[in-house]
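User: Show me an example of a complex going from sequences to structure tokens.

Assistant: Sure. Here are the input components:
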Amino acid sequence: MNRFTMQRRIAIALLLALSVGGVLILLDGHNPFEAYEVLFLESFLNYWGFSNTLVKASPMLLAGLAVIIPMRAGVFNIGGEGQIYIGGLFGAVFALAIPDLPGLLGVPLIFIAAAAGGAFWAAIPAYLKAYRGTNEVIVTLLMNFIAIHIVSYAVAGPLLAEGAPYPYSEEVSEAYRLPILIPRSDTHVGIVFGLAMTVILYFWLRFTPSGFHLDLVGRNARAAAYAGVDQKKTIIRAMLIGGSLAGTAGAIEVIGLKYRLFHLFSDGYGYDGIVVAFLAALNPIVAPLTALFLAGLSAGAGTMQRAVGVDSSVIEVVEGLVVVLVAAALVTPQTKSTSILKPLAKNLRLRRQTQRQKKEA
Amino acid sequence: MIDLVLLGDVLAGTARLGTPIAFAAVGGVIAERGGLYNIGLEGQILVGALGAAAGSFATGSALIGLGCGIICGLISGLLLGYMSIRLRINQLVGGIALNLLLAGLTAFLSRQIFGAQAGGARVNGFSQIDIPFLSDLPVVGPSLFSQDPLFYLLIGLAIAAWFWLMKSHKGLDLRAVGENPKAADLAGVPVFRMQYLAIAVSGVLAALAGVHLVLSQVYVFAEGMSAGKGFIALAAIILGRWSPIGAICAALFFGFCDAVQFKLQFTSPEIPYQLFLILPYLASLIALVVLGAKASAPASVGLPYDREHR
């Protein structure tokens, strides 16, 4: 399956998911075209709506990259959600503990603290996967819940703001708040940071040996070992990068949007990241588009409900269907696929063979 | 005396909170023994809960609610089976996708069925059954022997599942499929049929967890009411070393932690209750690391079987 068929298949999967959503809207007694029109006009072409989409897209993009990078090395990082929480916690603790630095110094340090937190949370499953062969999916899943409860404890106990009616921390000082990108809206520069990361990671994967090692380990661990690539180190490196990316997503939620650490501050962005990654077929450069699409869907769902009266849960159904159908679309029949990348590798091989045969003939 | 009352309360809470986790965990054990991950437990709990609520809402009969819940679980199990066995989608991706899909679908359908009432519609459920004599025992009597019928069903199912999996011929076939499908295939075991059976049973058991939530605990359907129980069940599978009885013990331990946590929130707010919320996950994590998963996990779990592949 070459890149073109793959993209076509993903497009078909998307259309199919939207059509099933359309049928549900019809069952709900509304016009699906009208509902989708409102949804997409609002979330992409309206000033306030689009800035709302961007606010949601920035953590989704970073969380998506946090899935893509480890997945390229064959490691499934379901732990984005937990890494976001720990990243947010580390960032917030740093911001509250040292409140007097100038913004230009403080903000980068907060990002570093958050990245370190996320990386720390990812290091545990990474180590277990690389050195003990423990299934990373189960470990990251378990650690998500632990992280959420740790943050819940922190904001209800040591970090609780004075006189707070429900668990949240004190506000971070004004110097640390991310600048607003679109005037009079909530859209902060987090999306710019996400885009910068996207470009850096794209070039890293494509043009550097250490980036190439990721794909090598992910596609054929044995070949990688023969080529002298340290599989364990590669897995750990990929997970640490993924964890830091998710950690910074936690930081931008805290210092970009809410200015406090809240209980349950991430609205499932870690899991949205999985959808973003799959829609992008694990290509970082496509991730901003898929993050924007997904953010638009969820930002527009509320407006659609208010304006047309369609229940916003339809959009959740569409999101679930997108993952099911895209996952199905990426698997070619008659291949043994433990990783979704294997069919890709196989087809690459087949294509090279046919090219060679053509040349010889 | 007060401590005995407290103990009784916690025991009753353990049974009540542990039962849904136990149903889902036994379901997960059966799927994994057949070589399939069922990450979709969370969504299947929701489907079972919605089916039970809808069935009981429409007919007023808890038994019909139970039946509807089971049918919904069966369908969701077969759907996951189709994705994992036939389409050979990565089983983890398939399960996560199923969870997303079912969370949305159940929210949508519940608003269609029960209308927009915020509290949802109250439905008829099961009432508790007092076992004669035993329920009169102090402390353990009211907590363990005057439970709802589904709790007793769980105990029956646990014994049946253990016997079927470990002592029957078919159970051996299933375990063989989970360990080495090629060898099982060569020995004449219908691999795909066994896997479909396992994943369907798994879906039904997960749905029973949802049925218990609705018909024995709260008597309404609420969106997202599974609240992570499906994921805790995945942890219980590991802590229970892939055995039905072990998984139930682990689930009851998780239920115990939850019951203690609830009590603590009211009686001693100075102790951070989150500690007990973290405990089940931490225990599973430690079990996974210390005991090692490789020794007891089915060898071929998560790997799609391809007859053509050598």
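The lines above are the inputs; the final block is the predicted structure for all two components together. The mean pLDDT of chain A is 87.
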